[in-house]
Task: structure prediction
Amino acid sequence: MEKRNIISGIKKYRSEVDTNFHMPGHKGKPEIFSELEKNLSFFDITETLGTDNLHYPTGFIKDAMDYISKVYGSKKSYMVVNGTSCGIISAILACTNPGDKILVQRDCHKSVYNACILGDLKLFYLYPDFNKEYGLNFSISIEKLDQMLTDNPDIKLVVLTYPTFYGICFDVKKAADIVHKHGKILMIDEAHGSHLQFCKDLLPPPAENSGADIVTQSTHKTLPCLTQGSILHVCSDRVNINNIETMLRMLQTTSPSYILMAAIENAVHWMEENGEERLKRNIEVFKRRTLELRNMGINVLEDDFLISEGLYDFDATRAVISMSELGITGTQLQDILRYKYRIQMEFADLQYTVGYVTAMDEPEDINRLFDAIKEIYIEESKINKKRGIVQIEPFPQLQHERKMRKAFYAENMLLNMDDAIGKTAAEFIIPYPPGIPLVCPGEIIVKETVDYVKTMLEHGINVNGVVDNNFVRVVKWKEDL
Result:
């Protein structure tokens, strides 16, 4: 065991990968950080005379957040140094009281569910429309959103994801109109969309300018920012600013990193100066190469194609690639790219491998990825061996006791997955990444879900909540619910 295991581990990873399409959005290119990169310890300070305070800003931190708010066109913006999960939980708790009902998009990030546990909230699900042919959750239905709010008038808050982890977008303006028609607050988890503001001609419209009341963003995902750097935007008078600030003070560290705060502002400033030009250049290369591969028969998602299939919009910076028609899973394709071509993607599922193109990528990076995909496809097409095609399944609409908090805190026990069928889950079962729960605490585990989890594990997908690839936690006593 070495004395500097993390540093050694990172160096080893860097020596094995030449090009990456995973977050953080700076892609490991140090030039973006200029002074920060050259003198890290100089900027690592704390709250003292003259350095301002993130929780009660009156000086240069306030000025930085005012600047960010102006760039994004929000009513008020907050830097979040505990990641977007902190922003999401803070916003949800700020807009609700214990026992309130909220409506959430079922394929949302686990932090939304964590907020419901902490806030003792009652969940209603809006399931996205699933396209079985392409194995993808498409958009949410605006009509179903309207009907859910009509049928459940006491819902307090609506939480939707835009874009999804796969770059898929619904009509956020229409969704906002529907939510506001019913007198509710709309919160958008735009963790994967902080770049939309900087290339409006070629990308879906940013939620913060489309009627959302609250928007949370992972600056570190698609902007050139250090990991954990995030932003929370308040965009309307429907939101109680004091409640937001109170929750942020409660949930954020009392020792925020000034380096991270500087990186957030620096990333926004760099994007304001360079983002549009760089994104347009990369999107042009990306779209040209995408069409080339699609003409060869390779399934690379593309906005015109998806819109023709009924989707509202698609983030053209998301590389979503499948060779499932050749019997190659997303995880297998990811491994080939990693170990043969030294290209690392963001994540893979049973069908797709997914990567992020940011303003920090160069055209040669994008061409390198597409050249590799082209070569893999040609080589694999020559193989006559019959390989089974693994299908992605839609989210099972599980029976929910609507007592997630009680199930989470109830006494639990480990059971073999097969023996857990019919039992109430005590913990999340989550393929990670991307972090979307298949099963939440309080939901009944069904055979279809167990079979699907087993298939994922067999194909090398990490599933949080499954111990030793075989056991899950269930509520021990039904009366605890």
User: Anything to note?
Assistant: The mean pLDDT is 93.
